[in-house]
Write a structure and sequence with these properties.
Blueprint: E1 3-13, H1 17-20, H2 23-37, E2 41-48, E3 54-60, E4 63-70, E5 75-83, H3 89-99, E6 104-114, H4 115-133
Helix pairs in contact: 2-3
């Protein structure tokens, strides 16, 4: 079944705590991940929390890459959402796993926007609109 986008939701455990608390490091790792995946970067925003932790996103023409870190637990939550067939989300994932030095990972992959479902919904909506006009 064809979908509009692919989303990898990843949890990285046992990561390098120093790296997870370094906003510049996290931002560069995320930008590099987008580039390695072949994405087109539109913008980016990153924030360092007090006393620790980083949240940020790289907005790409094909959707986004986002991260939230908990250095005190050696944990990072990563969301890689890409649309189209040209961006390699798995390559971005592999890069971030290496950069964060994750000891253990958990992932879930979601195919977003099932095209077959949209055709059904669109046809139902068109039929409902025609019924209202009568």
């Amino acid at each position: 079944m064809r979908s509009l986008g692919n989303q990898i939701v990843a949890e990285f455990y046992g990561c390098d705590r120093g790296r997870l608390d370094d906003v510049e490091f996290i931002e560069q790792a995320m930008v590099d991940a987008a580039q390695i995946a072949g994405a087109t970067i539109v913008s980016r925003a990153f924030h360092h929390f007090s006393p620790h932790g980083v949240s940020g996103a790289v907005i790409i023409a094909e959707s986004h890459l986002a991260v939230h870190t908990w250095p005190e637990y050696g944990y990072a939550a990563v969301d890689l959402f890409t649309c189209g067939d040209d961006v390699l989300a798995a390559a971005a994932f592999d890069h971030l796993r290496e950069m964060f030095a994750a000891g253990q990972i958990s992932t879930m992959e979601i195919h977003r926007g099932q095209v077959d479902m949209m055709r059904t919904v669109r046809n139902d909506q068109q039929h409902a609109q025609l019924s209202l006009v009568k």
